[in-house]
Amino acid sequence: MCGIVAYIGNKEAYPILIKGLERLEYRGYDSAGVAILESEIKVFKRAGKVQELKDYASGHNTAGNIGIGHTRWATHGEPNERNAHPHSSSDSNIAIIHNGIIENYAPLKEELKKRGHEFLSDTDTEVLVHLIEDVQKNNNVDLFEAVRIALNEVTGAYAIVVLSKDNPNQLIGARKGSPLVVGMGNEEFFIASDATPIIEYTKNVVYLDDEEIALIDRYNGLSIKTIANQIKTPYVHELEMQLEMLEKGGYEHFMLKEIYEQPRSIYDSMRGRIDSKRGDIYMGGMLEYKNVLTNADRIIITACGTSWHAALVAEYLFEDLARVPVEVEYASEFRYRNPIINPGDVVIAISQSGETADTLAAIELAKQKGATVFGVCNVVGASIPRATHAGAYTHAGPEIGVASTKAFTAQVTVLIQMALWLAYNKGAINQAKLARYLVELEAIPAKVEEALKSAEEVEKMAKIIARSENALYLGRGYNFPVALEGALKLKEISYIHAEGYPAAEMKHGPIALIDENMPVVVLATKNSQYDKMVSNIQEVKARKGKVFAIVTKGDVEVKAMADRWIEIPDCPEELSPLVSSIPLQLLSYHVALLRDCNVDQPRNLAKSVTVE
Ligand code: M6R
């Protein structure tokens, strides 16, 4: 949510900032701006995409070796040019970019107004830069100290970078609750919300922790202090990410590329963890907490959005295979409702980005109450894996499309392995059964490959659904969370109102919506509830609903009832979400294309939700 990039070094800052903003655009695309220091600070900003900014700045002098850039997802103030970052101090000598929310901005603003500060925007961020200016003038301190004192006065979340005309060889970055990473190049430094704008120049990065302030001096390098004035020693990590992972690689959209990457990303999420011949499964993070896990009376799984759907799949898996009670919680509700968590409880937090504010807060709450917290996260080094006791990375690679696809199947792949590990270690399944599951799991990438071949048939379905303003998705058992996920995909990128429902629940309300205009996507694969699903489909047909079915290869009965159908390969129902979700991802993609929607950057959304 909001992308930050900054550069200081020997090169021209502007092209590096623009390229960085393009890589970060998935974090927010309401407006974009840069500030570059030559002899004065030059600010360029525009409402809309980075391209608007590029077009505008192309006729101007953008020279300078130090600068900051921002792409915004609006919280305070409309997404217009006035509210776009960077924001400047009264004397225009300090510029700031910010990701997060300054919660006490209103009283601070009133106080600063009384002291003569005038504000040009509706943002909370502008208050912060005025506060820094005010502190510096009134306390006669250097910029770093002014930033430190100012940050002690604000409440809320922030990742900021500050640029000052009077400090032409320095950048200051700080974080609390929003991510910030420093790239350590050769006589040059970068600061960004994540590593994507940095990877092209250096693999050496330092992740800032909460309440840390980094001073980057072009000649003296990086030094870090906390806002409580404690000196910290920077720890340099080496990035494993490759540049190609951040590019479209010939696909029209990142989302399509990511859908087609799934045979590989699912494989990567199990690589090195399973040995089907021996019937062995190795989960490093879980091994360390074997006693806690095998003795847990219950498991709570918390997440948001698509990751919450993966959590629902996990509920079925853990209860079915490991026979342990599971509760699935929206992180945003869990954190505020005083939940009962006891020492000895296990909490699993799932997140692609590892930065989701509500999920992070839920983790902190669970830790305070004595639970052992595991993370299932895709982004290496993100806040969630650093806040949890242990966990497992999903290894899906960077996911740039705002609609989550390969991250979902990678999460489910890891959760299947966790459930199998626990089931085996609790004695709920024996080694022979574990080995059979692992053989089936190894076969999944090829089955996903086959499911991807349904694209042509999916496009035909998409042509019909694209004309509708509503859709229902129905599934039972393991297919119920897949129905929810299919509906979310459709609504978020094509803006069609879609509801996912447990198929049997339909007759308790949603059935009233069904008429000859209502597309109903049914997940009717061969599983333990197939016959029940057939009855539910008949209920839809009886009301003239249009049935679009996902069926198992060789199906006869459902095909005979469906208006259109897509076949997917057979697999054990515990693993089936990995395959049945594929045609639904493709369906939402093609519907969005037909409706001329921005597939990778749907309106109002951002990839990483770092505000609550
Ligand atoms: O990064 P996270 O997995 O924590 O993000 C959670 C949701 O914001 C995310 O899954 C969102 O729902 C996706 N855009 C859905 O495609």
What CATH calls the topology of the largest domain is Glutamine Phosphoribosylpyrophosphate, subunit 1, domain 1
Average predicted confidence as pLDDT: 94
Give the name of the CATH architecture of the largest domain. Answer: 4-Layer Sandwich
What is the top-level CATH class of the largest domain? Alpha Beta
Give the ligands present.
5-amino-5-deoxy-1-O-phosphono-D-mannitol
Number of extended strands: 27
Helix content: 25-40%
Structural class assignment? alpha/beta
Per DSSP, what share of the residues sits in E-state strands of 2 or more residues? Answer: 15-25%
Query: Which blocks of ≥5 consecutive residues have pLDDT under 50?
Result: none
- What is the name of the CATH superfamily of the largest domain? Aminohydrolase, N-terminal nucleophile (Ntn) domain
How would you describe this protein?
This protein is α/β, with parallel strands linked by helices. It starts with a strand and ends in an 18-residue tail after the last helix. It has three domains: about 5-240, Aminohydrolase, N-terminal nucleophile (Ntn) domain (Glutamine Phosphoribosylpyrophosphate, subunit 1, domain 1); about 245-440, Rossmann fold, CATH 3.40.50.10490; about 450-610, Rossmann fold. An eight-stranded antiparallel sheet has the order 3-2-4-1-10-9-11-15, with helices on one face. The model has no long low-confidence stretch (mean pLDDT about 95). Bound molecules: 5-amino-5-deoxy-1-O-phosphono-D-mannitol. 5-amino-5-deoxy-1-O-phosphono-D-mannitol binds near residues 305, 306, 351, 353 and 356. 5-amino-5-deoxy-1-O-phosphono-D-mannitol (M6R) binds near residues 488 and 492.
